[in-house]
Amino acid sequence: MAGRFPLPAFVITVALVLGVVTTHAQRPARFGAPIAAGGDHLLYIGTYDGSIHIIDEATETKVAAIPLKTGIPRSLTLSQSRTKFYVLDSTLEKIEVVDIPTRTTLSTFTLSEGNKQVRIRGLQVDPLERFLILLTRSATKQIDRWEIGDIALQLYDLAQKKITRTIPWPSGEEREGVNIRFSPDGKLLYFFGDDVLILETQNFTEVDTWALSRPIESGLGRISFGQVDDFNEDPGFFTGLFTIQDPVQNRRIMGIGRVNLVGKSIDFTPIGPAEGVGFAMAPDRKRGWGLMQQIGRYEFWAFDVTQRKLLSRTEFQGRPRMALRVSSNGRLLYVFQAGATIDVYDSTSYKLLRTIEMNADQTTNLFILPRPVQTPARP
User: Fold this and answer.
1) What is the DSSP string of 277-345?
2) CB 28 within 8 A of CB 345
3) Residue 260 in contact with residue 236, Cβ under 8 Å?
4) What is the 3-state secondary structure (H, E, C) of 158-205?
5) How many angstroms separate the Cα of 374 from the Cα of each of 52, 58, 102, 371?
6) What span, in angstroms and rounded, lies between the C-alpha atoms of 308 and 192?
7) Are 268 and 216 in contact (CB under 8 A)?
8) Cys-Cys crosslink for 2: which of 208, 270, 284, 285, Cβ 3.0 to 4.6 Å?
9) What is the C-alpha to C-alpha distance for residues 379 and 101, in angstroms, rounded to an integer?
10) What's the angle, vertex CA 44, arms to CA 364 and CA 233, rounded to 5?
11) Region of residue 290 (phi > 0: left; psi between -120 and 50: alpha; otherwise: beta)
């Protein structure tokens, strides 16, 4: 096993948050006011009617739906090529592969068989789409009981359409949940824990370790990843709101951080005391927004990602269980989840502009993708 590597040195710049002004969001625009468009992409989201709804971002109307053969979707995992969804169904037993440009199902599979149920608790797609890494647990029905199997990491070969390997747990330690990521070329697998164990993807042996458990600066605790956004990031990077422990003041400190997996480095800048705030980044990576959700108090937080600082906190009339996406041009914020509506806010004034009505409750994350390139028909 390779030796442990220290984190690269970096300068921590403290941003003062005392000067941040908390304001209140404006009310919805009146009927007849000009409509601010969020861009010209397409919105994709899974729903309880057993399909993926497609919404035109420019008109904010539903233009199509992709019916799913496996029923209600629990989650959508986007391939690195952004041409396929890997859909996990609500029973956690079936996976469906959907081609985004043609809006068709390419294949489906389940690991359950006979009296044995196998539930898929998580999945990661190889960047080259050779295989899936699945976190599974089986339950076998006997005449008088259920026998629960061990939690397992398994490799599903997409070409052979079967499980071809069970990946040994690093250090022999089973986990109920895992955070794993691939390198952009698919040659390495990063297994996050106290430290990051780096495995090669031929035989899944450990080839390196990234010592994240070491403090980033003398006198500070280890860094912990919180809300992250890699949707608008380069492959191999992710940006988010991370926290560290200040042992002197006995408090958690929150900051904006960017992780480079291949370079094994973190660029982290503290911005103030830690609070539970979600995070979503604009496509240009210059701005980011967060959602603070407390009973009776909801706020938009605005961040300058380039300068690594908090710009503002704005109260608004939120709703229970919210998630956030930034429009393709960065001008609008989409608040969704737990219902059949998407609320559309201006990303500068935080005015509620309008609400997109859907005919089915949402069950998955929201994806904003460019319109597929139409290939001219051959004569």
Assistant:
1) B--EE-TTSSEEEEEEEETTEEEEEEEETTTTEEEEEEE----SS-EEEE-TTSSEEEEE-SSSEEEEE
2) no
3) yes
4) CCCCEEEEEECCHHHCCCCCCEEEECCCCCEEEEECCCEEEEECCCCC
5) 20, 18, 10, 9
6) 25
7) yes
8) 208
9) 21
10) 85
11) beta
**Tens-digit pLDDT profile for residues 231-282:** 999 999 999 998 888 777 778 889 999 999 999 988 889 998 888 899 999 9
Question: What letter represents residue 270's amino acid?
Answer: P
> What pLDDT score was predicted for residue 79?
97
Contact (Cβ atoms closer than 8 angstroms) between residue 292 and residue 298: yes
Q: 15: Cβ–Cβ under 8 A, 6 or more apart, which residues?
A: 269, 270, 271, 272, 308, 309, 310
Query: What's the rounded Cα separation, in Å, for the pair 279 and 44?
Result: 19
Question: Burial level of 3, CB count in 10 A (0-12/13-18/19+)?
Answer: exposed
pLDDT digits (tens, 9 = 90+) for 307-340: 999 999 999 999 888 999 999 999 999 999 989 9
The two structure tokens encoding residue 29: 């625009």
Structure tokens at 214: 């070491």
Contact present, 315 and 350 (Cβ < 8 Å): no
Give Cα separations from 328 to 32, 41, 46, 57, 210 (angstroms): 24, 7, 19, 8, 34
- Residue 166 scores a pLDDT above 60: yes
Q: Which amino acid is at 157?
A: D
Q: Does residue 96 contact residue 108 with C-beta atoms inside 8 Å?
A: yes
Give the C-alpha separation, 258 to 306, whole Å. 11
User: Which residues, in sequence order, are CB contacts of 250 under 8 Å at separation 6+?
Assistant: none
Local structure of residue 232 (DSSP, 8 states): T
Residue 143, C-beta contacts closer than 8 angstroms, at least 6 positions apart? none
pTM confidence score:
0.87
b (16+ CB within 10 A) / e for 282-292: bbebebbbbbb
Q: What is the pLDDT of residues 134-154, one digit of tens each?
A: 999 999 999 999 999 999 999
- pLDDT classification of 14: cutoffs 50, 70, 90: very low
How many of the other CB atoms lie within 10 Å of CB of 134? 21
